[in-house]
Amino acid sequence: MSITTFHPPSRTLMGPGPSDVSPRVLEALARPTIGHLDPRFIDLMDELKHLIQYAFKTGNALTMPVSAPGSAGMECCFVNLVEPGDKVIVCQNGVFGGRMKENVVRAGGTVIAVDDEWGTAVDANKLEAALKANPDAGIVAFVQAETSTGVLSDARALTALARQFGCLTIVDTVTALGGVPVRVDEWGIDAVYSGSQKCLSCVPGLSPVSFSAAAQEKITSRKQPVQSWFLDLNLVMGYWGQGVKRAYHHTAPVNALYSLHEALLILREEGIENAWQRHQYHHQALRVGFAAMGLDFLVSENEQLPQLNAVVIPAGADDAAVRSRLLQEYQLEIGAGLGVLAGKVWRIGLMGHGCNQKNVLYCLGAMDAVLGYMGAEINQGAGVKAAMDYYAASG
Length: 395
Hints:
Blueprint: E1 12-13, H1 23-29, H2 39-56, E2 62-66, H3 70-81, E3 87-92, H4 95-106, E4 110-115, H5 124-133, E5 139-143, E6 145-146, E7 151-152, H6 155-164, E8 168-172, H7 184-187, E9 191-193, E10 207-211, H8 213-220, H9 233-240, H10 254-270, H11 272-293, E11 308-312, H12 319-330, E12 332-333, E13 335-336, E14 345-349, H13 357-373, H14 382-394
Parallel strand pairs: 1-12, 3-4, 3-5, 5-8, 8-9
Antiparallel strand pairs: 2-10, 6-7, 9-10, 11-14, 13-14
Protein name: Alanine--glyoxylate aminotransferase family protein
Family: Belongs to the class-V pyridoxal-phosphate-dependent aminotransferase family.
Binding site for substrate: 347
């Protein structure tokens, strides 16, 4: 085997993540590496904390990026907050709620499942019934933006219910953060995790997390040690705490943290409320275009995520063949369905830097060409025009 320098192709990333990365973020990655205890890097860590607090809309002192992807952010929340014997209510309406269940079991907790059909939001009435039936439950966990289905659940209402029954909350905002409102303090979320590679448009591999004072109290008063040494917040905060003096815990991914700092700076420069509006605006153009083509969305409009669109595969279209042609001929990546939705939907992302008019029109045009050529049942030529009409009318 002859191995040479790897040069990746230039793609337009419109799958469920990673998303297109801003040239500013890529440039930040190439800056000189310094030590993870260097005084200048400590300054960057403090700034990163403030930028993550801005994105989460929180003042939580225990806010930082986990040096690993969103799945590790999820595990960080569960291994720190769930002790053996704890009863945890987990709401599942897609793949990632199922991963929450796995984390509870591995931490020695007992799962109380609240299940909803994939493609629908978490039902607050079902959660309330579970809370009434399990007064000894201590934690409620749910996914705000379910990446496997494109569904947005009402985090404010679900968190309020949990608080009413004296439960802490763990909320997955991996796809939500930066694309739809996430208001940690206003909604009273206790533990929240996200990922760098979705609406933040950073490179994969980092997971912003934040914990309330109540969550911190539970962590520090644990009867048993956290089962993961690397993710034990009692240790990690010695490194991510306030002040210049930091206790060595692990070698932080220095250059990756440069890139997250730049991505969050871009978000703050735009204004997070403006970012939420931008995602909704371009989502509507994509929705109008697909509707004109005769394609349906899996999720009802009032529960639809703007940044992750689950489009039902039309009759006459071969799922894998369409995605392959888009990738090979148009350098366009879209996502396949997961779990029970495999082969039934495409997951099309409009995230962060890639959420723009150019990508909307490019995606519609490329899909129109491929689906039309393959004989799928669509209204060929209608999608791009409908989206352009939308932009003309709303611009």
